[in-house]
Amino acid sequence: MALINPSILSADFARLAEEAKAVEGADWLHVDVMDNHFVPNLTLGVPIVESLSKATDTPLDLHLMIEDPDRWAPQYVEAGAGSVTFHAEAAGAPVRLAREIRAKGARASMALKPATPIEPFEDLLPELDMLLIMTVEPGFGGQAFLDIMLPKIRRTRELISRHGLQMWLQVDGGVSAETIERCAEAGADVFVAGSAVYGADDPAKAVRDLREKAEAATAVSWGCAH
User: pTM, whole model, 2 decimals?
Assistant: First the structure.
């Protein structure tokens, strides 16, 4: 099953509650947290996440593009996040952090920048509920999809299958009606889409259309055995 997670980075920040309701058919609401240190941009923090979690029934998928996620990630679980993603490049103790996120009741996920290979983290996979492959450089919305990430997505799906894990494989960056099928064919099953959803005339329909494209590509290429 393909999961579509609209990114509120592309939404109107003055109307977040309304923008969340506009995509209520989505599986999760993707929330990018940036600190102007790990990435050159600054977005929202714990108080806004807490308010947003009360304004929508759609579970929140937090992507922490921040330094020191070991300190901050647990606070986002307490603020209402259902899934928290930290970056492999920023975490000091990723196994301990993943276990703490899970212990607090959320799904634990780890993200990799485009230049970070998956292979050194193979032994960590059983500690995670999801792995996020960035298909653009983190820090800004609206970037063009990097096709060179498709082999990395395939290798990651192979590792997940080899270990018999029931974990999700998410892609984030430049996901649209033009690119989502390639991601699904490569092995992704969770798709973050920002401008492709919030830039559409009907965001809810855009979510449905993206899911339909991803599921059709998945059925043709590698089945739904995972």
Answer: 0.94
